[in-house]
Structure formats: C-alpha cells, structure tokens
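In keeping with the milestone schedule agreed at the kick-off meeting, the structural modelling team has produced records for the first pair of proteins. Each record is given below as a sequence line and a structure-token line. The laboratory manager (R.T.) confirmed that both were archived under the project's standard naming scheme.
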Amino acid sequence: MTISQTDTAATVVYALEPDLAAADFRDILVRSTLAERRPVDDLDRLATMVARADIIVTARAAGRLVGVSRAITDYAFCCYLSDLAVDVACQRQGIGRRLIEETRVAAGPRAKLYLSAAPAARDYYPRIGMDHEPDCWSFPRRM
C-alpha cells in the first residue's frame, strides 16, 4: 500500500512494505551505514528481522529501494524504530526524516517512538526535533 509521495530530484514513493525481501533489506543496509552493525552476512536472520517487524516503510526512487524504516510496536504506547537506513548516495534529501514520520503515522498518535542512534547519526536526531532519552539500559546479545 502506497502511503504518499514527495518530490526531490526524482519522485520518491513511500509505502508500507511488510513483505520486503530479506535480500533487498540487506542491500539497503549495505548501501547505508548500518551494515557495520547488522548481521548482513546472515540472510536467514535478516529474513526473521523483516518478518517479525510490525512496520516496514520503504522509500523507492524509480522503483529502486533507497531507504527503509523497520519498527516494532504495540500501536498504543510505544514504537521502537530498530532500523533506519538510507542509501548514502540519497542522504540529505529528507528521506530519513520522511521515513520516521511515516513510521510514526503507521504506529498511531498514542505510540511514542524510540530509537537507538548509530554513532554517525547521533547529531541528526536532535536536528529533526527528537528528544534525547538518557535513561536507557540494555543486555548484550547472547550471540
């Protein structure tokens, strides 16, 4: 289902794409900076990550995947945006901001959106109006 469109140098189409192929997900992770922190060499794990996500929003220019947002949510209280990847060649065009907004719309107005910033993106999120949440803890992955 197409969510909306916006014009940049080329038309970018934003859509909910719950059946995104794991290979396409891997490709955009590699073309962004997220491949450094994602299991891109484990296609089965990527397929599980996509299949179990509640919201996947894609950005496509001329049919080519240029961005993706992958989130987990209860649609009522919280939404964790676990992956935000934009092709390095397409960054600084508002695609990431729009993917976040479309994810927020899909999650609903009562769900607060959370994310963990990649090191290279820490300065980006305050610029688009996100608040820093200092009280966050985690357990390391077991494998």
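The second protein of the pair:
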Amino acid sequence: MSIKKKSVWREWVESIVVAFVLAMFIRAFIIQAFKIPTGSMRPTLIEGDIILVNKFIFGAKIPFTEYRLPALRNPKRGDVVVFIYPENPKKDFIKRLVATGGETVEIKDGTIYVNDKPLLEPEFGKRYYYNRGEYGQENKKITVPPDGLFVLGDNSASSQDSRYWGFVPRQNLLGKAIIIYWPPQRIRIIK
C-alpha cells in the first residue's frame, strides 16, 4: 500500500487560501485596522496613527447584506467610533459619540449639553467646542432621531462632524476604536 504525498505546491496553495479566508473573516467580523488621515481627533488621535477597531462589540455587519450579528453592548457616550460617512458611503470616519437616539444636544460657551446637563467627563470637559454648522448653532437644541447618533471630533476647530452634516444612522456604525498600535511611540488604549 502506497501513501500519496501532496505536492509542495499544493500544500503552499492550501496554506495561503486558508490564511486568506481566516484573515478576511477576522477583518469582517472581529477587528480591523484603520489609518487616521486628518487631525479632526487631535490630541486623542493624530495623522498617521494606525488603530485597531473592535467590530463585534456593536454587532458586525455581515458583508454584502444589511444584516448584523448580535451586539455585545450598545454604543455609549464617550466611545470613539468608526462609521460609514453618511454623505459618502465609500468613506469611513472616526469621531467621539456624544448622544444617541432621543437625547437633545446643545453647544453653549464651548461646552456640550446633553439633555440640558453639561458633559464634564474628561473626554469632553477638557475641550472647547465651537458653534459651527447647521446642527451646532448657538442657542439651538437638536434632538437626535431614534436610530441616530450625534458625533463630534475632539479637535472641534478642525472637524467636519455632526454639527455640519447631522446624524449618523445606527446602521452605519462599524465599531469602537480600541488601541493605537502604530507608530510604536504612540501605542496606547484609546479613551
């Protein structure tokens, strides 16, 4: 009885195919890397930072469908989130979540108010937010639609965010930024 050996080429091809399928599964459902192109999230994230985004925490989208996997938790105020830009679905944006469906948002004297209470947590209280754009005007309260998210960049002076283009549909949410992993001197957990 003779045992057939696989050719070296076949073993290589099988290994590459398995690695590719595994990598695509991880990227689609678990974790994905993104590069930060602008300074809209300074000082939290700067141009050139490469981050990892947890895609399963809010329920990863099943590719080529409108369906999602079950979420581990809902997005909450202060999360740094990656989402499909509402005005151009070919672009992904990253901003900080300020308010969710049903909440009211107002920017007064550089401070964000949600449901008439100032956000004084460290991720909001140490920043000045400018009254800009249609949704960020002085003395204007905005109510977030039931399935919407209101997001702002940490660098309010240089950020195109919900103040300009409105709300992010919940279905556009891709995941939560968890860590900066490149460049080495900037490695840290994102807060």
